[in-house]
């Protein structure tokens, strides 16, 4: 992530990411959203994870909202596929999910918070070189109830304030791992799919020809 010069008088970070779950049947509405509102400064009763990038203290604060019993977020990239699926150990029982953002390993963990959706506050380390920043994390989903489609959105709230726009250049690398399913069409084994479809059409053709032969 490359950012232009930023002011230091801001109390809350104005740059970051949000991770939200898209429930089936929900159509997001952008017309009702105030363009001057900053999504990083709001909370939610639904599943929401905010990654607040603090370029002054070189850290990324992770805030969780909503019920997340089996959604685990950990610093660094997910290790290569283990022999058996491993669920991270966490005191309060949160789980993990898919893999996000190429950036740097991180380290610290924050204070315990209440049960209003924010289990533990995680703090990720933020790498810095000139005006470029990077960090990495991975998400693991540990229950079927929390599986589904997730959106990872980038927010630059400086651009929501007239006259304070800040240019940025961002590169995100995402690695999907889902051993028992397919997260995208590109992962479907096409050879098996084609064979099954060919067999189906062959059977349908034979059936149709047999029907025609019986009814001259």
TrEMBL record:
Keywords: Membrane, Transmembrane, Transmembrane helix. This is Protein GPR108. The keyword Plastid does not apply. InterPro entries: GPR107/GPR108-like. It comes from Neovison vison. Coiled coil: none annotated. The chain crosses the membrane at residues 193-213. GO terms for cellular component: Golgi apparatus; membrane. The keyword NAD does not apply. It comes from the Eukaryota.
